[in-house]
DNA sequence: CGGTAGGGATAGGGTTCT
DNA sequence: TAGAACCCTATCCCTACC
């Protein structure tokens, strides 16, 4: 077909299909797309989908689930960092789906408190940064032990109770942000 | 708090770049953004643009130059269909009945006059809908033959001269809108 | 080319900036 | 309000690999 003029077949996933996919992954595991499709329990709902469709959709679901809290932090990071080099052709959307740059350049943690201050400074959020943004910043920029969040939370509490940080309570939000006192 | 922020170089498209884009579309067709970028004939001029940039720019060009009122029609459509259906699908063929936006669900044309009236009704434009809005509505919601516009124009003329439609002439515009008489 | 993984491309809705 | 540039997400495509 040489034309293809106005023919799309963009078929959005229905909630039913998505539920079937999730159930299928629960039952058969990820990476078993053809198996899920062949399962008579899901095949009726998913009959218009291919195994590749399932794989792609599962990827999307996973990515967006991961991002719930990351998105805000990433946006803040983006704001805080100077504009990237003169926009080359790999500067399109696809990078968002891959791992954030290279983790090879992460520094080792030396002083957690200094790192926290660095995060808040670099995030440059006008109304301070909340815990999650700080977590993400640290995670993205340093080699972190598995219990980093707890350590950071402890230090945040300490730094704000008798240190250089100030807690900001918002009228319209439930989260508490942190900012420098000085 | 006025911090000297980071100005993003809003790289405006130069006439050369725009010409290269148009030539590229002529040569490779729309939707071949990466191909256009890879074409040595255009890559030098467009080297600071991404495939997504090309797509976006082409959309801007098309909206303003070719289809001035396509946007208006789309906005009207959006206005007209605000409450996405209460999610109420039959078991027969969910995909065909949901999401009027998917082109896969276009109905076959049976009665053009009825379709025209449906368009005007659903577009819900307070001052009636002009030809182009109606064209777009039909194009978006039905499988159309290539000469749909001419057919619709003929029926519009007929329906307004001795039918249920009323032509509205505007003081400040040159276009003529149509609305139901009843 | 049967199936999967992952990079990549595209369309279209949104957002930001002016 | 509008237009241009740009961002975000969902979907689909391509290729390497086994």
From TrEMBL, chains A, B:
* Primary location recorded for the protein, binned into one broad class: nucleus
The HTH myb-type domain sits at 12-66
- Report the locations given in the UniProt record: Chromosome; Nucleus, Nucleolus
- Domain H15 stretches: 108-176
Q: Which intervals hold domain Myb-like?
A: 5-62
Sorted UniProt keywords = Chromosome, Coiled coil, DNA-binding, Nucleus
Annotated region Disordered: the residues are 79-105
Bilayer-crossing regions: none
Regions of compositional bias (Polar residues) in chain numbering: 94-105
Has UniProt tagged this entry with the keyword Zinc-finger?
Answer: no
Asked whether the keyword DNA-binding is assigned, the reply is yes
Q: Which domain of life is it from?
A: Eukaryota
From the Swiss-Prot or TrEMBL record, give the protein name: MYB transcription factor
Q: Which species is this UniProt entry from?
A: Brassica napus
Q: What is the lineage of its organism?
A: Eukaryota, Viridiplantae, Streptophyta, Embryophyta, Tracheophyta
């Amino acid at each position: 077909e040489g034309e293809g003029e106005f023919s799309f077949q963009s078929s959005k996933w229905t909630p039913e299909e998505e539920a079937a996919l999730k159930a299928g992954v629960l039952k058969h595991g990820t990476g078993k797309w053809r198996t899920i499709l062949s399962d008579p329990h899901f095949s009726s709902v998913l009959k218009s989908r291919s195994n590749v469709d399932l794989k792609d959709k599962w990827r999307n679901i996973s990515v967006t689930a991961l991002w719930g809290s990351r998105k805000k932090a990433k946006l803040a990071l983006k704001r805080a960092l100077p504009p990237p080099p003169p926009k080359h052709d790999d500067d399109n959307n696809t990078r968002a789906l891959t791992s954030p740059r290279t983790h090879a350049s992460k520094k080792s943690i030396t002083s957690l408190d200094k790192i926290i201050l660095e995060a808040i400074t670099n995030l440059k959020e006008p109304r301070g940064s909340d815990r999650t943004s700080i977590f993400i910043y640290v995670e993205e920029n340093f080699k972190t032990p598995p219990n980093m969040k707890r350590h950071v939370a402890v230090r945040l509490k300490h730094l704000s109770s008798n240190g250089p940080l100030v807690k900001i309570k918002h009228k319209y939000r439930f989260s508490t942000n942190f900012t420098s006192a000085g």
